[in-house]
Design goal:
The chain is an alpha+beta fold. The protein contains two helices and five strands.
């Protein structure tokens, strides 16, 4: 992974991009998604089947971008499909 560098605006846009990519993958797994917060900095994913939901952040580090979610979940933002599978399982979404 390349280190994360850039202006504040570039970081906000990169965060939004990573969360949108994850939302796309989650919606493909029949989860409902909504961007929340200032600059759409948080993603809420919910299972319409189980009623469970989770809040997801995208965070930058020297190693690159990661997704973090409640319950100690973490995944590489370079692989949103893998993160979406993990989140769908967490929410009890049938596959």
């Amino acid at each position: 992974m390349a280190p994360v560098v850039g202006s504040q605006e570039e970081l906000v846009e990169a965060r939004r991009h990573h969360l949108a990519a994850l939302a796309y993958e989650l919606e493909a797994r029949s989860l409902a998604c909504r961007m929340l917060g200032a600059g759409e900095s948080v993603l809420r994913a919910a299972s319409p089947v189980t009623g469970r939901n989770v809040m997801i952040l995208a965070t930058a580090s020297a190693a690159g971008w990661s997704y973090l979610w409640s319950g100690g979940g973490m995944a590489d933002a370079a692989a949103p499909a893998i993160a979406a599978d993990q989140i769908a399982r967490l929410l009890g979404q049938p596959t």
